[in-house]
Amino acid sequence: MALISSGFRGRRRSDPALPPGQYLTNGFPVLSAGPTPRVPLDEWTFTLSLGRGEQRVWNWAEFMALPQESVTTDIHCVTSWSKLGTTWRGVAVDTLFEGIDHEFGFTMAHSYGGYTTNVPLADLLGGKAWVAWEFDGKPLAAEHGGPARLLVPHLYFWKSAKWVSGLELTPNDQPGFWESNGYHMRGDPWLEQRYW
Questions:
Q1: Entry pTM
Q2: N- to C-terminal Cα distance for the chain?
Q3: N or C: which end of the chain has fewer CB atoms below 10 A?
Q4: Predicted pLDDT at 32
Q5: Strands (E), 19-141
Q6: Is the predicted pLDDT of residue 38 greater than 50, yes or no?
Q7: Average pLDDT across the chain, whole number
């Protein structure tokens, strides 16, 4: 069952900053498919699974020691709300892949709580995605995916997996949780790729 916050209101308008079918909100609606995981920082890890049994794993202290970036971007939810000019801080996915040889072109994002979503690697690299731990100058709240979530702002927000625990490289594009339930495999808001 999805949970919706009281900030779930907005208005449709004709605005070139908004993808088709979206309305602007000033709030930050909370939508989740299940209970909110509470992950203590001393238990948090992020695992990059490369295939062939290879992995890179960072604990919270190691993750925070990586180069950090500040990002200002618009976000768009498949349920039709958009929030413009959001500010985040985190580690670029490019940083996590530095010095790594890989042969697969797809990933499955895994989250604490069991959520998964597929994202082509091309949509994560080249300055397109981050593992974000801060929103609007404060540590990311658990209901918004804290302690860290994937941030892939050029795709619908379900691709920005909350409570992210890792990325698994895969040889094929395999559906994650929402994709297995009828959502589009890629989710480009400008193309209105909401459903299959």
A1: 0.90
A2: 21
A3: N
A4: 74
A5: 23-24, 45-51, 54-59, 69-76, 81-92, 106-111, 116-120, 130-135, 138-139
A6: yes
A7: 92
Alpha helices in 41-174 (DSSP H): 60-64, 93-96
In the numeric block, which tokens belong to residue 29? Answer: 């609606």
Strand, helix or coil for residue 167:
strand
Give the SS3 label for residue 61. Answer: helix
Q: Is 1 exposed, middle or buried (0-12, 13-18, 19+ CB in 10 A)?
A: exposed
pLDDT band at residue 102 under the 50/70/90 scheme:
confident
Kind plus residue range of the DSSP H or E element containing 178: helix 177-180
92 contact partners, CB below 8 Å, separation of at least 6: 67, 69, 127, 129, 130
Distance of alpha carbon 19 from alpha carbon 119, whole angstroms: 20
Domains of the chain: 44-191 (3.90.420.10)
State phi, psi for 41 to the nearest 5 degrees.
-60, -30
- Name the DSSP class of 140: P
Mean pLDDT of 173-191: 97
Residue closest to 18 by CA, chosen among 88, 87, 83: 83
